[in-house]
Amino acid sequence: MSTQNRLSCLVALAPAAGAILFAQGASVKVNLPADSPVTLVSADWGESRTQERGSAQVLNLSTSLSLRHAGGRRIRAITWMVQAQEGVPGGKASVSKASLDVGPGETFPLKVELRLLRPVAAQAPPAVEMALDGILFDDLGFFGPNRLDSRRVMLAYELEAQRDRRHFLQVLQAKGPEGLQQECLASLRRQAELPAVDVQLARGGRATAVDPGREVQFAFLRFPDAPVEPVAGLARASGAEVWSPRLEVVNRSRREVKYLEVGWMLSDARGREFLGGSVPARMTLAPGRRAAVLQETSLRFADKGGSPLAVEGMTGFVSQVEFADGSVWIPSRAELDDPRLRKVLLPSIEEQRLTSLYRKKGLRALIEELKRMGAGK
Length: 377
Description:
Elements: E1 4-6, E2 9-13, E3 19-23, E4 26-31, E5 38-44, E6 49-53, E7 56-69, E8 75-83, E9 92-97, E10 107-119, E11 128-137, E12 142-143, H1 150-193, E13 197-201, E14 214-220, E15 228-238, E16 241-251, E17 257-268, E18 273-285, E19 290-294, E20 298-303, E21 311-323, E22 328-329, H2 333-336, H3 339-344, H4 349-361, H5 363-373
Parallel strand pairs: 4-11, 14-21
Antiparallel strand pairs: 1-6, 2-3, 3-4, 5-7, 6-7, 7-10, 8-9, 8-11, 11-12, 13-20, 14-15, 15-16, 16-19, 16-20, 17-18, 17-21, 21-22
Helix pairs in contact: 1-4, 1-5, 4-5
C-alpha cells in the first residue's frame, strides 16, 4: 500500500557546514566544505513529501534554502547537487541559479523543486544529501568540486548575461529610454510568441523499432566568429520521432576544444520551425582537426496541444564551445539576430530577468538595474 508522509523539518544542526535536517521518517544532509563561500542559514521544507510506490520511495522535495554569502567576491551563479541514491536512475539531480548579484554578508534564497527516487530497501540515512557543486563570482572565478560540470554551464550563463546587459546599455545610450522601452516590448512579444514544443526522451527505446525511418540531412546556420564549424550532419526520422543524430565538425580556431554544443531547429510538414534541443559532445579537438559527434538517443516531438509533429527538416548551429584552458565561447547578439533563430530561440536567463523587471517595475527600475550592474568584463 502506498504511504505518504509530509517531509517537515524538525531540527537543524550546525547549519554552517554539514547540516543534518531531521524530518518525519527521513533526513536531509547538507554538505558544505569548511572554506565554503556560502553558509546555510535555514531550510523551509514546505510541502515536501515522501511516497512509497512498489519497491521505490519517491521523494518530492519542495524547499527554499536560505544561504549567506561568507566570501569576499560577488556571487553571479550557484549550483547544488541533490542526491537520494548514487547510481540509481532518478536518484540524482541538480539545481542552478544564475543572474545573481549577491554581495559579501548578504543572504539569498535557493528554491529546490525536485522529484527523486530511492529504493525502499536503502535504509542508510540520510534519505537525501545536498552538496555545493560550484559558485561563479563576478570576476569569473570559480569555487567548488565541479562534479557536474557546473563551471562551464554557469560561465556560459554569465557570459550571456554580460552580453545582453551590454546590448541593453548600448540601446539606452544610442536611442534613449524610449528606445530601451521598445527593445523590452519587442523581447516580451518574442517570448510570448515562441512555439511551444513537448520533447520527450524515448526511454524504453524507439516506438517504431520496425520502421528504419528515413535519413534527414542537416542544414546549418554558420556564425562567422564560431571557433567550431559543423560541416555535415544527418539523423534518422519517422513521423514525430528523431534518433541517432550524427554531426561532423571542424575546429577553425587556434586552440584545442574540449566541449561543444550544436543546437538544432526542426521544421514540420507545414513549414513551422521549432527548437529541438542540442547535441552536446565532450572531446579533444585540436586546431584544424575534424571529429564526429554522435548521440545515441531517440526523441519524440509534439506541439503544445499534444499532437505529434511530423519532422521534415533539421538545421544546426553551434551554440557553445569550451576550450582546453576552460574559457567558453558563445554566439554574439549579432549572430543570434538571424530571423529564423529569433522565432524559436528562448532569450537568455538575464534577458528574461531584465524584461521581467521592466514588466513588473517599469522602465526606471530597469535603467537603474543596468547602471548598477553594468556589462561586466
